[in-house]
Each structure stands twice: as C-alpha cells, then as structure tokens.
Amino acid sequence: MTITQALEILRATPENKEQFKLLLACSFTPLHLQTLLAAHVQRRMRNKRVAVASGDFGNLAGTIERASEQSADALAVAIEWQDIDARFVYREAGAWGPALESDLLKATPPKLHQLETAIQKTAANVRVAVCLPTLPLPPAFHTPAWQVSESELFLQEQIFAFGRRLIEHGNVSIVNPSWISEAAVPGSRLDLKSDLLVGFPYTIAHADLLADGFARILAPSPVLKGIITDLDNTFWSGLVGEIGAAAVRWEAASRYQLHGLYQKLLSALADEG
Predict the structure, then answer these.
(1) 14-52 tens-digit pLDDT
(2) Phi and psi at residue 191, in whole multiples of 5°?
(3) Assessment of whether the complete model's pTM goes beyond 0.70
(4) What gap in Å lies between CA 97 and CA 95, rounded to an integer?
(5) First CA to last CA across the chain, in angstroms?
(6) Which of 5, 79, 203, 253 has the fewest Cβ atoms nearer than 10 Å?
C-alpha cells in the first residue's frame, strides 16, 4: 500500500461511525507508519472509524503505560534496537566500540524488563501487538558484517526470550519475524536519510509491511470454516475410480511423498479446529 492509497482509504471512511482507538507506541517519529497502520486496520474494520494516536518521541515505555489512561481499544508496539540502548540511534553522537559491547551485557536485561512490565500491565485491559526489532544493527561491533559477534547473539537471545515471556502472559501477540524476513530482506528496511533528517527509520515498503502485520493481529480476518480439496492426484496419487482405492499412493518413502505431506498439513489444520 502506498501513502496515497492509505490516505484515500482514510478519507473515504464516514466520520459518523463508532471510533476504534488504536495507540501506536514507538520511540521514533511515527510519520508514515501511523498513516499506513490506520489504513490497514481501517480496511479490515469497515464498521468503525479507526483513529491512531502516538506517544512521546523517545519514550516507548511511557507511551505503553498510558494506553489504558487514553482508553485505547488496542496497542501496537514497534520496538527497535534504540529502545534497548540509546546509543544505537544514528542521530545521536553516542560512542560505539568495546565499551558498548560490555555495557550491553548489563543494560539489556533491565531495559527489556521495564518494557515487559509496561506491556504486561497494559495487556490486562488492552489487546497488544508487538513487533520485535526489525532493523539491522548499526556497525557497532568488532566483527565484520559477515561474522556475528557474541554481543549480537546475546542481544538476539534476550529479545526472543523477552517475546516468549510476553506471549506467556496472554493478550499479547508478536508479529512473526520469519514472516517479515520472507517479505523484506534486512537491506530494504532502513531509510538512513529519513532517520537522520526526521527521525523516521523505515522505508515506505517496510513501514507498510509492519502496518500490515499489526493489522492482521489487531483486526483479524474471519476464521475459515473449512477447506475444499480435490482427491485424485491431490490428496493421493492416482485416479481412485480407475485403479481402485488399494492402488492409490501417498507414502513418504517414494516419489509420492508430497501427497502424504499434504495430508499431514490438512490433519494439522483439522486438529487446530
């Protein structure tokens, strides 16, 4: 979705509809992410008028904590590396180097605990969608780009453990990092010029992707009631009306294994209801 398309969706929504209040929590300038998020949720929620508010620049935890006070119906939280350590902000003249790496071991757990506490408190009353850091880390570590450092692995470990704890507490959903990676390679996500000039770090395409992810969680589509599938040469290999039920194939030990995998997938979906 482009910015123009997003604005057209929002302008076409009647103002007399009941309002759906959505709060976007991020520590950077919300800019296009706010517009795209409103449009994506609005497209999925036609019976209401979506209004997206944002919080204070650089105050992610404070914005999250005020979600209940602002009577928000839902909360979208976009976390980036700068929320873990302020020296990851390109616009700041913070020092990078060995000192930063040692500090991360001490500063990261308390910072994530602060965000976790704020999100858990808000999630008691408000539906929350969280996006874990999606931007590439700045060149702050001693290893070359093609080699991961111990500090980077530590950060990733802490982030995923943080996300798991959030989900365990309920009423919180995480935008799938794998889903993001399939749609946007890391090099297509950061707009450094925009970040330096106005404090908005995302390319339009990446902001649109995150907005779509948030919308899918906070305004989900109706659950499918069933799946219609063909049988011959789909559910199994062969035409059962010609060769008989005993001759169709689907076992995994042969070239017919794709039919077995398809059956396994359908079985898993059936188990999920």
Answers:
(1) 988 899 999 999 999 999 999 999 999 999 998 999 999
(2) -110, 90
(3) yes
(4) 7
(5) 32
(6) 253
